[in-house]
Amino acid sequence: MLDFIYYPVSAILWFWHQAFGYVLGKNSGFAWALAVVFLVFTLRLVLYKPFVKQVRTTRQMQELQPQIKELQKKYKNDRQQMTLEMQKLQKEHGFNPLMGCLPVLLQVPVFIGLFHVLRSFNRVGSGGGFAGFGHSGGMTVEQNANTANYIFSPGDVQSFLAARLFGAPLSSFITQPMSQLESFVHDGAGMPSKAAIAAVSIPLMIIAGLATHFNARASVARQSAEAAANPQAAMMNKLALYVFPLGVMVGGPFLPVAILLYWVSNNIWTYGQQHLVFGKIEKEEEEKKQIALERRAQNAPKPGAKPVDTRKKSAAAKTEAVADTVDLDKADAPQAAQNGAKPAPGAKPNTAKKRSGNRGRANQKRRR
C-alpha cells in the first residue's frame, strides 16, 4: 500500500550500504549502521530549505503576535470575521502557516518507511509489527533468508541478518520474540542474546531521549516572551520538553536498534542545524538593524546644529514670494504707462519728463 515510500527509502539505504560496505565489508554491522545514519543525513539535507522556511515562519509568527491578539480581542464575538482578518494579515505579510510544520510532516513517512523496511528483513514467525507496520510474518528461517526485501536482494537480506553492532542485530529489539531471534542465526553467527540487545538499545534510548529534550529546550529558549505566554504554546513546550523524550524511553524496548540509531542521528543533525540556521538568521537581522541605525544617523541633525523650524521656513518662503511679486509689478509699471495703460494698483505713476524736442519746434514757429 505504501510502496511509493518503501522503495525510495530502501533505495537510499541500499546506496549507502554499498558505499560503506565497499570499505568496511558488506556484512559489517558498522557498514549497515552508517548506512542508516547517512539515510537520515540525506533526508535532512533534502529538507534543509523547508527547515529554514519553517524557522523564518516561526519567527514571523512571533512578530505578528501583537497584531493577532488585537484581532482576537476586536472580533472575539465574530469568529468568521476574525478568520477573514487573520487570513488578510497573513497574506499581507506573506505568512504561510503550512511551512511551519512541513519538515516534520515530511519526516513522518520516511520514519514509517524505514521502520517497515528494517522490520521486513526479519519475516520469521507471526505478527504484524509495531503499530501496524513491520514484517508480514509467516516465513520460515530459510524462506526469509532467500526472499528479497523491496530493492534488497536475498544476498543483502542475509548480509543484514548476519551483521552485528556490538553483538546486537540492527533489526532486533528488546521485546522481540525468541522465534524471530532464530532468523539471525546465519553464516556462522549465533543467536543474539537479550542482554546484548539491551546493552546496545538502552544507551541509544537514553541518548535519544536526552537529545530530544535538549533540542526542545533550545527551541523553547528562542521563543519570545509573548509566544511563551500563550497557553497553547506553553502546553506544546511542556510536551516537547518532557512527554516526547519520555515517549522515546517508553517505546524504546519495542523499537529496533536501527530505529533508535535513526532517532539519535536525527536529533544530532537537528541540534547542529538549529544552531547553524538560527545563527545565520540572527546575523541577518543584526545586519538589518545596523543598516537601519546608520540610515537614522545619516538623517539626524549634526551635533550642535539647531533643528530646522518648518513653520519659520514656510513663512519666509511666503514673504519672499510677495516681495518678488511687488518687484515684478514695479518693473512692469513704466512699460504699462508708455503703452497708455493704467498703472497697476499700488504702483507709482510715471513722472518721467517728455522729451524737449517738441517744445523747441513750437518756439521756432512762434518767432516766425
TrEMBL record:
Keywords assigned = Cell membrane, Chaperone, Coiled coil, Membrane, Protein transport, Transmembrane, Transmembrane helix, Transport
Q: Where is the signal peptide?
A: none
Transmembrane helix as a keyword of this entry, yes or no, is yes
Q: Which residues cross the membrane?
A: 30-47, 95-118, 195-218, 239-264
Q: Which residues form the Membrane insertase YidC/Oxa/ALB C-terminal domain?
A: 32-277
* Gene Ontology cellular-component annotations: plasma membrane
From the Swiss-Prot or TrEMBL record, state where the protein is found. Cell membrane; Membrane
- Kindly give the membrane topology term recorded for this protein: Multi-pass membrane protein
Q: What is this protein called?
A: Membrane protein insertase YidC
Organism (species): Nocardia yunnanensis
Q: Which gene encodes it?
A: yidC
